[in-house]
Amino acid sequence: MRRKLITIRDVAEHAGVSVSTVSHVLNGNDHHVGAVKRERVLAAVDKLGYRPNAIARSMVKRKTATVGLVWTEIDNPIFVPVILGIEEVLRPAGYHIVLASAPDVVQEIQAIETLRSQQVDGFIFMSLSICYPFDHLVRLNNEGVPFVVINRCLDESTIPQILWDERGAGYEATQHLLSLGHTRISTISGPIHDSPPRRSAIERHRGWQEALHEHGITVPPEWIQISDYTYEGGYQATQQLLELRAHECGLPSAIFVANDVMAASVLKALYDAGLRVPQDISVTTVGDSPFAAYTVPALTTLSLPVQEAGREAAQILLEGLTHGKSTNAAKITLKCRAQLRESCSPYHTTT
Amino acid sequence: MRRKLITIRDVAEHAGVSVSTVSHVLNGNDHHVGAVKRERVLAAVDKLGYRPNAIARSMVKRKTATVGLVWTEIDNPIFVPVILGIEEVLRPAGYHIVLASAPDVVQEIQAIETLRSQQVDGFIFMSLSICYPFDHLVRLNNEGVPFVVINRCLDESTIPQILWDERGAGYEATQHLLSLGHTRISTISGPIHDSPPRRSAIERHRGWQEALHEHGITVPPEWIQISDYTYEGGYQATQQLLELRAHECGLPSAIFVANDVMAASVLKALYDAGLRVPQDISVTTVGDSPFAAYTVPALTTLSLPVQEAGREAAQILLEGLTHGKSTNAAKITLKCRAQLRESCSPYHTTT
DNA sequence: TTGAAAGCGCTAACAC
DNA sequence: GTGTTAGCGCTTTCAA
Known about the structure:
The N and C termini of chain A lie far apart (about 70 Å). The radius of gyration of chain A is 27 Å and the shape is elongated. Chain A contains twelve helices and twelve strands. In chain A, helix 9 links the parallel strand 6 and strand 7. In chain A, helix 1 packs across helix 3. In chain A, the strands form two sheets. A six-stranded parallel sheet of chain A has the order 2-1-3-4-5-11. In chain A, strands 7-6-8-9-10-12 form a six-stranded mixed sheet, with helices on both faces. The first copy, chain A, folds into three domains: about 45 residues, Orthogonal Bundle (434 Repressor (Amino-terminal Domain)); about 130 residues, Rossmann fold (3-Layer(aba) Sandwich); about 140 residues, Response regulator (Rossmann fold, 3-Layer(aba) Sandwich), CATH 3.40.50.2300. By secondary structure, the first copy, chain A, is an alpha/beta fold. Helices cover about 40% and strands about 15% of the residues of chain A. At the A-B interface, helix 4, helix 5, strand 2, helix 6 and helix 11 of A face helix 4, helix 5, strand 2, helix 6 and helix 11 of B. Strand 2 of chain A pairs antiparallel with strand 2 of chain B, so a sheet runs across the interface. Chain B binds a DNA duplex through helix 2 and helix 4.
């Protein structure tokens, strides 16, 4: 930043005191500084427009008051609320956030390296529920670097992590359908066969399974559509399902769709096929994107406490940042909340 | 980051060379270093797991390779693609991004202060098209700090800025309706009366006006609904419009909705009222959120090149970062692209 | 209460 | 080619 930098020395000179006195005043170590000199310092600071150099300070304090936010795939809208939650708690604590998106593990490792050389004080890792290898995270943890991980399956109890109760979400979404009398309940699942696996997809699917199982219900395999969490995928999966009209197993009376993005396009596919929701077919899903309340019909869904995840993560990190190390490695699972809207109706034989 | 830090001196010692040699090797000033010593240095670096301290380097180079991203309201999904665009160009250039959200001007000024003391090399400001006062930006500019501003109206030609052609978007969206034979074209506008003003809302509205004016069309004032860019707002505005059924001016045959969020709820409101889109009423809008292609019916809209805005901003900033200062303060206006989908049909007297 | 001075880890003259 | 050394701007003993 161009301009001749104004340093603490300039201030000291201007105020006719020593640099250490200036430093003391500026850092609130006022106790041992005379009121007169303090005033003089403050005046000089003001007059000169002095702006302390945080870099220089970081150098000697060996702390930067900065945390690295490593994002496994930034191209996801939930990024925003999560960051919001993180900022909400990190900002007041005086911390800054440095961003680094890292689409894969190699880049993640690379990002960690870079950020560490930047001397960040800690990390938050946010991923798309993908079960990447995490040896590097274990190592990082062993080195005593504070960090917390959001939405990633690491089967490692000494790393603090925030998860959503995906299985519970799938379960409850299905349970809701069951409670309405539906028994012919299909699913359009997320990428449950991906490798590395996608935890959310697998868990939501399992939740659906468990709910059905509890009621002793089995469904024809054709009613299980594996898709990919995208609009296009949801649309196509629905078309697949609709072809069963002519098939012996027939159509389900309800669909559990693994995320709200697909659910939106499921609605569209159903509409395009002339089926009415919820009269002809009910739909539940997971994820409560802002649009979910304004689809036609509005989606009954389980909302992920996204911003809360950011808050929790930051909170735990802060703990580790201040108390030198994460006290008790927490594994927090956040419950999803049901949002009952218009896409479901009680089961009845064809209208 | 705990652990005894390994410094460049340790490496020098281990390799039996001087620190400056190590520094040269590490910074690619290889020309003047013998191959033998270079190897020894590299080996020592590897063996010791040396990680250069970027903070120390920044201190002497007076550069941090970091840019501050100041976000006027982080709670907006377009944040993600914009960041994506920014990272796309800043990352390869070796720059990091420090985040700071600042909901209002006071906090923005504060954020700038903090980031400057953090020694960021430059800034990108991203706002919601709100015409905040910007004296502080002019000052920043005068101090020679490189920065660029996205989506904000500052009537100041020496500050590089990226804008979207909002007026053009409104114009073309309306023009499309006109070309389909519509003349009874209503608008659900954004917050055009806000203070400080919202540029996008005003411009889109003006685009609508201009298109009608060009065709010598005037509309009853009841057909102009001022709303707020939200789902709720869009829904309510539509209900207002629908009350005109009983009114002497009657219903329009088409609506230009100022953003896609409102458009989604307009669709819903119309559906709830038993009106079919596009058979009974056509809808165009601005903004092409991912969901816009999957509403029922899919929205005909003008898409903002969002990621491109991020890219352009970063590109221009990079210019200023490397060439000491922004060469020629650019004001780039990005054109919006029409996405023709299902929400419009040719005008015809009531079906 | 105040100040002098020793670094924090690195780069870049400048000397050899 | 290679090494010595003077800072970058700040905090923090330690003395006075």
